[in-house]
Specification:
The protein has 160 residues and is mainly α. 44% of the residues lie in helices and 6% in strands. It folds into two domains: 3-43; 55-135, no CATH class. Bound molecules: zinc ion (ZN).
């Protein structure tokens, strides 16, 4: 196979498959000659690492997914109503025993339904409150409070 011709075709933007048809060869044969001549074939981009989205793509996905889950969880921290930055909001698993996976990262690679089910087991808190909850300085509103209004004073129905 002629190198100059091969190069001209490549410069014209022909794909391996296309000129394999023209020269009536197997695309892998054409690929072989390209490599042999040190030419870069068109139409066959370097394969990306399989299955894994690249990092920025993954981060975008995580951001979108989290934004959605945060909105669905009320849009702000359950304790202090912080809502300035989604990145500083975290899903705290109310009962760690029910934790199937962490939402912030692995949530992005699961189905939305699975991530939602996981978020339903959580209370949305800002990272400060989360830290306080973890060390016991702050305590979470009970599940029913979290479902209802933000911080209604608790009315104890007394006798009479
Ligand atoms: Zn907070």
């Amino acid at each position: 196979m002629d190198r100059d011709q091969l190069k001209r075709w490549l410069d014209d933007g022909l794909s391996l498959e296309r000129f394999a048809t023209i020269v009536d060869r197997d695309p892998s044969t054409v690929g072989y000659w390209c490599r042999r001549y040190g030419l870069v074939p068109n139409g066959r981009a370097k394969p990306k690492a399989r299955g894994k989205p690249d990092r920025t793509e993954l981060e975008r996905l995580i951001g979108r997914r989290k934004r959605l889950l945060v909105d669905e969880a009320g849009g702000g921290g359950a304790l202090c109503s912080y809502d300035r930055c989604v990145a500083a909001l975290q899903f705290h698993h109310v009962d760690p025993d029910t934790k199937a996976f962490g939402i912030a990262y692995r949530g992005a690679t699961r189905s939305l339904a699975a991530a939602r089910a996981e978020a339903a087991k959580c209370v949305l808190v800002c990272s400060n409150c989360h830290a306080e909850v973890e060390v016991g300085v702050a305590s979470l509103p009970s599940q029913s409070d979290a479902m209802g209004a933000l911080s209604m004073p608790v009315d104890r129905p007394g006798p009479g």
